[in-house]
Specification:
By secondary structure, the protein is an alpha+beta fold. It contains 18 helices and 32 strands. The protein folds into 7 domains: 4-97, Phosphorylase Kinase, domain 1; 101-296, Orthogonal Bundle (Transferase(Phosphotransferase), domain 1); 315-381, no CATH class; 393-449, Trypsin Inhibitor V, Chain A, CATH 3.30.10.20; 454-525, Trypsin Inhibitor V, Chain A; 537-589, Trypsin Inhibitor V, Chain A; 594-663, Trypsin Inhibitor V, Chain A (2-Layer Sandwich).
Length: 665
């Protein structure tokens, strides 16, 4: 398989003189997203680059720029931030907030389906971000699990506003059918119309998928799925997953109603109902019906509000039909009719007076209701019942975090914790987490770091590697990612030679005080360095290579005891411990050194002996000559006539030379 780094020309490129492209994150139908470094601000960013084959398409380029403008209008903790937008040559790009983590699609792919509690937690953040978009007049139009980002630090954000439009323009017809087919609303499929309620439909499909692990409408062709969206109603999730509570069933059916008028008006309305469902599931309130919410929050064209008020109004208005009825049936009947008419007039007058008195009570009741509504609106809009987002507090000092909470009318409560990543006195986390919506005056618990937790580590020297690792992890500390191997003649193969702290190289081989977050680096013995002295060079080199050691040429020396071509001595190339891969220098023997035997023919025995001994040889002089002691011929000028070994031959130093004597002639 060809590596992406070998085929993507943008990797390593500097965009617009500022953004250094590092690696590719994802590729979509409209653009590719890269991890880049903003060299000016020294931070990691996500760089979204439009495909080159779309650069000449004005519509695509307009949508691409529209994403930057749409997202830049939003400032919400649950929406991915856009930092910059520009063009480098013919390449349009966006610079966005980089969030290491996964998408909701990745989560569903790994776990199949989620629990109702997990679904509610994720959807609260998604709807909070979408509510901010709807409040700003923006319709997303491409909501799907791929566009919900789950960051490693717990943040949940909504991204990819590439198809977003202003709400006022999104309801027009004649536009191309855009967005993923599995999440398109019926009005988008049939008429090409999209508004905030189209986003709500997509949210309903996503909730169904999260609860059941599959989409409600499936087919081999996109047209089959589109037909089902236009003509079929989404079933209850509990038909696929019996563990889904009825409140979430009702929520999904409300959000995915085929008639847009019967859905929530926007994400804020659905979010408020989701909070109510959450409280109901946890037993905070009795079960309720979603129809009540629809009546309380009617859309602009909804007449149900009048329908609801009609029974109460009817109770306050008397019926005049019986009092106003007159009949004429002859004179007698006319007399009765007049009497009846007189009674009717009296009754009408009485009813009129009663109606006026009731009118004052009705007016007072209406004023009371208006006051209650105004007070309720204040309570939930600006008063203690208003919802605010928990700010991001991680790694702030405890004092700064408390001030940040006070600024949004929240109360801070500190809870000390040990932390491996966050310095002492700084916030390691918050509960509820950043981005969650809570009521004003709520308490947010700050987990304030106490630094690393003190610990004691046992002696590690001499233990096997596995035993040392178990001792370290048992003390809730970390083993270094790289274990250093070293040759040792004193420690057995596979046993720990030494252990040090990764932070300051402190020797802790014998154990001692430690902290749970520190990392331990281990040095493990691989046995002694092979002894190759006296072995032929080729054999010595093979043995060192087998031990994963390199070999280098040392000195070549004469040696009387080591054969030529064999190793005289070995030594590490560098001072210090020997590790696999190090070089061992080998001194090789040239064999014994030979010297010329000087020619001493014609010398006296004494002079010959002196010359040979000076050359490094030992000398044997005969005691007799022709059966007589040599001393007898001292005055006769006895001379050397022959020597053994022969003169001018090469012999080792110390070789014994025997002289042959004769008379000077």
């Amino acid at each position: 398989m060809t590596n992406a780094s070998q085929t993507d020309p943008l990797l390593g490129r500097l965009i617009d003189g500022r953004y250094q492209v590092r690696s590719r994150i994802a590729r979509g139908g409209m653009a590719t997203v890269y991890l880049a470094t903003d060299l000016r601000l020294e931070r990691r960013v996500a760089l979204k680059v439009m495909h080159s084959h779309l650069a000449d398409d004005t519509n695509f380029k307009t949508r691409f720029v529209q994403e930057a403008r749409s997202t830049a209008r939003l400032a919400h903790p649950n929406v991915v931030n856009v930092f910059d937008q520009g063009q480098d040559d013919d390449m349009a790009y966006l610079v966005m907030e980089y969030l290491p983590g996964i998408t909701l699609r990745d989560l569903l792919r790994d776990y199949g389906k989620l629990t109702p509690e997990q679904t509610i937690d994720i959807m609260e953040s998604v709807l909070a971000g979408l509510a901010a978009a709807h409040r700003a007049g923006i319709v997303h139009r491409d909501l799907k699990p791929e566009n919900v980002l789950l960051a490693d630090d717990g943040r949940i954000k909504l991204g990819d506003f590439g198809l977003a439009r202003a709400a006022a323009n999104a309801t027009g017809t004649g536009q191309a059918l855009l967005g993923t087919i599995a999440y398109l609303s019926p009005e988008l499929v049939t008429r090409g119309i999209a508004d905030t309620r189209s986003d709500i439909y997509a949210i309903g499909i996503m909730i169904y998928e999260m609860l059941t692990g599959e989409q409600p409408f499936q087919g081999e062709q996109p047209m089959q799925i589109a037909y089902q969206h236009a003509n079929d109603s989404v079933p209850k999730p509990s038909l696929k997953n019996p563990l889904v509570p009825p409140q979430l069933d009702d929520l999904v059916l409300w959000a995915t109603s085929r008639d847009p008028e019967e859905r929530p008006a926007d994400a804020r309305a659905l979010l408020e109902k989701l909070y109510e469902v959450e409280r109901t599931i946890h037993g905070a309130q009795p079960d309720g019906e979603l129809d009540a919410t629809r009546v309380i929050s009617p859309t602009a064209n909804d007449t149900q509000a009048t329908t609801v008020l009609a029974p109460a109004a009817a109770a306050l208005v008397p019926s005049y039909a019986a009092a106003a009825t007159t009949q004429f049936a002859g004179p007698a009947a006319q007399v009765r009719s007049e009497a009846t008419a007189t009674d009717a007039v009296g009754k009408l007058a009485s009813v009129s007076r009663h109606r006026r008195s009731r009118g004052w009570w009705l007016f007072a009741a209406l004023m009371l209701v208006a006051g209650l509504a105004s007070g309720t609106g204040w309570y939930f809009g600006a008063g203690p019942g208003a919802l605010v987002a928990v700010p991001s507090l991680r790694e702030k000092t405890a004092q700064d975090a408390a001030s940040a909470l006070q600024n949004v009318d929240l109360v801070a409560k500190q809870s000390p914790v040990y932390s491996c990543e966050v310095p002492e006195g700084h916030v390691a986390g918050a509960r509820p987490s950043a981005g969650r919506l809570v009521h004003k005056g709520s308490t947010v618990t700050l987990d304030v770091s106490r630094g690393h937790q003190p610990n004691t580590i046992p002696p590690l020297g001499g233990l096997s590697l596995e035993a040392a690792k178990q001792a370290i992890t048992g003390a809730k500390s970390l083993v270094g990612t790289t274990v250093d191997n070293q040759f040792s003649s004193k420690v057995a193969n596979g046993a720990v030679i030494s252990a040090t702290k990764a932070t300051d190289d402190q020797d802790i081989t014998g154990g001692g005080a430690f902290t749970q977050c520190d990392t331990v680096n281990l040095v493990v013995s691989v046995g002694p360095v092979p002894d190759v002295v006296g072995k032929p060079l080729a054999e010595a080199q093979a043995e060192l290579a087998k031990a994963k050691l390199s070999f280098g040429q040392g000195q070549q020396k004469y040696d009387d005891n080591v054969p030529k071509g064999s190793v005289i001595a070995q030594a590490p190339a560098n001072s210090g411990p020997v590790r696999p891969g190090d070089t061992i220098l080998l001194d090789v023997s040239n064999g014994p050194q030979l010297f010329n035997v000087p020619d001493v023919t014609g010398m006296t025995p004494a002079d010959a002996k002196q010359a040979l001994e000076k050359a490094g040889f030992t000398v044997t002089v005969p005691d007799t000559f022709s059966g007589l002691p040599i001393g007898v011929f001292a005055d006769g000028m006895i001379v050397v006539s022959k020597e053994t070994p022969d003169a001018n031959s090469k012999q080792r130093k110390g070789t014994n030379i025997s002289l042959t004597l004769g008379l000077k002639g």
